[in-house]
Amino acid sequence: MSIPSYKRNVGLTQNLTERSLNAINRFLHIEAVSGGILLLAAVIALFWANTEAISESYSHFWHTQINFSFGEYSFSQSLHFIINDILMTIFFLVVGMEIKKEIHDGALSNIKAAVLPIIAALGGVVVPILIYLALSTDEIKSGWAIPAATDIAFAVGLLALLGKSIPSSARIFLLTLAIIDDLLAILIIAFFFSGGLEPIGFLIAFIGILGVIALQKMGFFSAFVYILPGALIWFGLLKTGAHPTLAGVILGLMTPVLTRPNEVDAIERANAAISNIRNKAIENSSAEIKALARAKREILPPVVRVKDLLHPWVAFIIMPIFALANAGVNFGNVNFEDTLALNTIFAVSIALVVGKPLGIVFFTWFFSKLGWGELPSDLSLNWVLLIGLLAGIGFTMSIFISNLAFVNESNILEAAKLGILFGSGCAGFIGLLFGFILLRSNKKL
User: Fold this and answer.
1) 110 in helix, strand or coil?
2) Where does residue 13 fall: left (phi above 0), alpha (psi -120 to 50 degrees), or beta otherwise?
3) 256 half-sphere exposure, CB direction, 13 A CA radius
4) For the ranges 54-58, 154-158, 212-216, 420-424, which has the lowest average pLDDT?
């Protein structure tokens, strides 16, 4: 008996809706748990860097040289480089895929619904930058982009601590804002923190991009075949003087969002495999299980499949390792009598704690008054203020940018990281406190 087409369409729509909601919930859950692991990694890094008996080993360990050779080619880089420039490429790959997916069928696909979070994100970038520039002296103005970033893992993690009474629209607003924030931070890195550009590097990167396009046209859906052209893009960007982690963003934005043309055939094969498994003992169904796994790979869009595969690795391993390698500020290395160091700490922390919420709330209020967008009915400006406070947690991307801004100024770099840690900590604490007060006041109404 065949199922009427309209029922199939309704079922498909419901399935897609449920899948989208499940994807958002899964993403938020991973980010929430990851925030706790990130915090633990940062605390361990600070303890390691400031415990007299082992403090010297912190810097020595992360600058350990890793060497290997293949024929005439030899590779020699520090562990710090491998983490910041290679592993973080995978982080940016996931960010790029998340942006691509949200543009296609997520929070950014409906421009009317996305316009206010996008505007809020712009305010959360512009105002902190202006505050930093206003408070800083000429010698440290190169760090202007540090307070522009939001750490989505910490922000979502603290929002999750407030419980399920938080409006669902607040979570979506924060997620959309953080994704746009990441995109703006990526553009800042690409345009303002790339050195003298070498043309040969662009040629190598372009060949890598053509390789990706060619493989997609030939129908290769396995992620592994894209490692070689991806490595070419990474190496090309390194040669140009641009930051090589941008290769991850390029690959993420190039990842297909549509399934293979034979999706219906894959669904039928999956159903057949499930029927066969039901009729057999599970231990005798290895062929059917392999067929089911293969069909699943074909049914899921590559952007979903690869992102779901990499996201836990990024959230639970790569980002904590990055925090462990970069958050270890040795307070003894920060000269608190140095005016520049104090100015850096003050400018960064104030820009994060004050600039972020001020920019997000003001831009949201001002442009909604102009009629450019409308907040959801369950989302007042008080909730937007809470989101703004949590967005003041810069951490991962802020530390990443500080490494680029003060590459040859170790004292200022340590001060900037201290400002990030202090400002992010204050923003998180104030946000959490304000959130609990907001929830309590809402219960009394």
Assistant:
1) coil
2) alpha
3) 20
4) 154-158
